[in-house]
Design goal:
The protein is mostly helical and 90 residues long. Helix content is 64%, strand content 0%. The longest helix has 48 residues, at 40-87. Residues 42-82 form the SPX domain.
């Protein structure tokens, strides 16, 4: 495991090392009763599809953010290695 100095760790940003965990309650999805409308099943299906699209979009956004942080960290590591190689006596 690679250990970074506190100064270097701070440059990576809080999202790289911070643990952002939120408690989520149950998700409320409105369901229209099929007995009230012949299109009730279709309405419910559309709501669930919309809900799934929102969750998928959110997951994609989170993955993009994680990759951004990963590449940022790799860039810092590359810079750190370059600096350390220049400081070593030949």
């Amino acid at each position: 495991m690679v250990k970074f100095s506190k100064q270097f760790e701070g440059q990576l940003g809080p999202s790289f090392y911070g643990h952002h965990h939120r408690e989520h309650g149950p998700i409320q999805v409105h369901k229209k009763l099929a007995s009230l409308d012949s299109n009730g099943d279709m309405y419910e299906t559309e709501l669930l599809e919309q809900f799934n699209k929102k969750k998928l979009h959110h997951a994609e956004k989170m993955i993009r953010g994680a990759f951004t942080e990963l590449y940022k960290g790799l860039g810092y590591l590359k810079t750190y290695r370059y600096i350390m190689s220049k400081l070593k006596p030949a």
